[in-house]
Structure formats: C-alpha cells, structure tokens
From TrEMBL:
SUPFAM superfamilies: Chorismate synthase, AroC (SSF103263)
Pathway named in the protein's UniProt entry: Metabolic intermediate biosynthesis; chorismate biosynthesis; chorismate from D-erythrose 4-phosphate and phosphoenolpyruvate: step 7/7
Protein name: Chorismate synthase
Record keywords, A-Z: Amino-acid biosynthesis, Aromatic amino acid biosynthesis, FAD, Flavoprotein, FMN, Lyase, NADP
Gene: aroC
Amino acid sequence: MIYLTAGESHGPELTGLIEGFPAGLKLSVDQINHKLHERQGGYGRGYRQKIEKDQVIITSGVRHGITLGSPITLRIANIDHSHWSEVMKPVGEPDPDIAMREVKNPRPGHADLVGGMKYGHRDLRNVLERSSARETAMRVAIGAICIQLLNQLGIQIAGYVQKIGTIDADSNQLLSTAQIEEEISKNDLRIIKQDKVAPIHELIDQTKKDGDTLGGVIRIVAENVPAGLGSYISWNEKLDAKIAAAVMGINAMKGVSFGDGFDISAKPGSQVMDQIYWDPNKGWYRSSDHLGGFEGGMTNGMTIIVNAAMKPIPTLYKPLHSVSIDTKEEHKASIERSDVTAIVAASIVIEAAVAIELCQAILDTFDYNNMERLKKQYSDYCNELKNY
Ligand SMILES: Cc1cc2nc3c(=O)[nH]c(=O)nc-3n(C[C@H](O)[C@H](O)[C@H](O)COP(=O)(O)O)c2cc1C
Ligand SMILES: C=C(O[C@@H]1CC(C(=O)O)=C[C@@H](OP(=O)(O)O)[C@H]1O)C(=O)O
C-alpha cells in the first residue's frame, strides 16, 4: 500500500490517494468522519476549527460502501478557502486590486525561512500553505480507513495525551484500548486523569493570555498485534523504525520512543527486558512490556506502545524576533491565526500514522488483493505462531 496527500491549507481542498488496498472491505464513512471530527477538537484550538467541518468525500476505489482494490481517492473541502479564493486560486493571474497576504517575516519554528531559501520563493505563503498541519486532516482520513482494516483483523488502537506543558495527566499504568477510550471520552483533553482537566484548562487559558503556546506528550497503544510484523533482516524493514519515521513526519513532533521510552537507558537490563513465558492456552507471552512491543524491528506480540513529544506551537501572538527576507531589517515574526496547543488533535494524527504503518506491514506480509483471503491467511498465521 502506498498513499499520497496533496493540498494547501487555504486552497480549495485536500486530496488523498491510497493504492494497494484490498478489495472487499466494508467501509464506514461515518467512522472516517468521526475521526476527522475528533481531530478538530481539543481545548486550545484556534478559530480555524470553528470554520471547518471536515467531512470526507470518496470519489474512487469504493462502490456501494465496499472497497474495489482500485486506487481510493479522498477529498476534504477547506471551507475557509471561500475567504482566500483570490489569494489561493490555483490558476489565473493574481488580481492587482486584492492584497495577496504575502508573508515576508519568517516565523521561527516554521518551515518559512528554509522553505523559501530551498524553493526560491519570495512570498513565504508559498511555503506556509503546504507546511501547515492542515494536511494532517487527510492523513487522519487515510488512517481511519486503515483502522477499519485493523479492527476487522481484531487489532485495536487508541491514543491519549500524557502531558500538556509541564502537567502530567497520565495514570502511569498500561491501560487497555477500551480503558483508554472510556477515560478520554470524559473530557476534552483526551487525558486519563480527570482531576487534571481544570488545571490544564487554566494553563492553556493563561498561556493564551501570555501570547504563548504549549506542546506535550502523546501515547498510542495498539493491542492484539501478532508477532513478526516487520523484520530484523535489513534496517529498512524494521517496523519500529518505520513507525518512528511516520510519527516524526507529523508537524511539530520532536521525539519518538517505544514502551518505557528514554527512561530505559538509566535502568539495568534486568528491569528492562520483557521475560519470555509459554502457556499451552496463551502460547508465547511476556510478563512485562517495557520495550513497547518490539524486538529486532519486529512486533513481539505484546501491546505496541508509541510515545511522541510535540514541541509548542511555533506561531506566537507575542511574536519572536525575525528579519524581513526583502529588506533584511529586523522585524517581529509574522502572525498567522493559530492554536495555543494542538496536542489533542495531534494524538488523533499520530494514532492515524501508527495505524497506517501497521496496516502497511500487514499488507506487505499477506496476500492483500482480497479481504477474505487476507483474513484467512492472517488467522492461519496467528494460529501457527501460537503453536510454534
Ligand atoms: C494538528 C496540528 C495543528 C497545528 N496547528 C498549528 C498552528 O495553529 N499554528 C502553528 O504555528 N503551528 C501549528 N502546528 C505546528 C506546525 O505545523 C509545525 O510546527 C510547522 O509546520 C513546522 O514543522 P516542524 O515543527 O515539524 O518542524 C500544528 C501541528 C499539528 C500536528
Ligand atoms: C487548519 C488546521 O490547522 C492549522 C495548522 C497551522 C499550522 O501552521 O500548522 C496553522 C493554523 O492555520 P490557520 O492560520 O488557517 O488557522 C491552524 O489552524 C487544521 O488542523 O485543520
């Protein structure tokens, strides 16, 4: 399976293309739209999310709700485009009577300056529009399709926010996906600890007043994933490496770890390795999951645990120092309407990215042409592992 996304933040729409997806999967558009809706939520988001109402339109590869095996194309409209139709029109000369909202003062932490240098743009809007995390809406739509395939194979995936700024809102226990879903449904921050909701709201409100922004830490958990996805044979087949790359490919991510994460480096080996057991009913299992479900670049049958660190949102209403790319004079960085934090939205995007990689690994391992055949091969493989 390969996928591509296209689209500028204030252009007419986002486009997605998935190729190499099995025929015969019953697809729920409601489930895709539900994930898109979740990505738009979360305390701390900016005004743009009041304008948009993300809904997917499927234009190929699906007939009467069932995938055909042919390329799937997806569209999500940018409702805000109506306010930018002249500035962002894909064809035709710019109207000289309309301000083109050029960006000349690059924002620290954004692609603005380096993107301009690399592609030779003198209006940094040409960079900003595509580097914007608006694009992640399409990755969430693609991920939602992959989640439906994973669910049909019995794999569950869920994510939550562990930290916002300095506030730790995690229970610090390994929770099942069902427990995570239940806890995060109780608040608008996708956190586990309900008593941290009010302090985090206060922190976000205060940070907004200060013209500043926040980042955080996200955890994604995937259950019931069989051993042996990915490979130790070559570096580029290691599934943990592919997941790490996919997570780092999401805007504002600055770190990825698995299981107990960077903490394992300070512990003795006896407290880190997940010891091996066998039971006639369960088959092979481990007594712990410090390594987050990976050994040798392969899933080991334990729950996959992925952690991601998001930097604070780079656009500040109290803008940082910058320099005009035209005059070279000192200027405050440009201000684009912005989120105070998008950690909640990012948790949905990371969940999608992990789901896409797991789905790809499964389609790389089994015959992917037809869903029923895939399910049969997959179940035979799982039984074979049990009896190894
Ligand atoms: C869901 C989501 C929403 C974001 N919203 C904003 C935003 O409103 N303003 C902003 O400056 N950056 C926002 N970002 C972060 C920037 O897109 C990102 O930091 C920037 O493109 C530079 O990329 P890098 O941080 O990966 O280096 C958001 C990121 C995500 C994942
Ligand atoms: C549009 C989305 O996020 C945008 C991501 C973003 C950025 O710089 O990454 C900047 C803001 O764009 P705008 O200036 O249009 O409000 C966010 O709203 C979205 O997530 O749907």
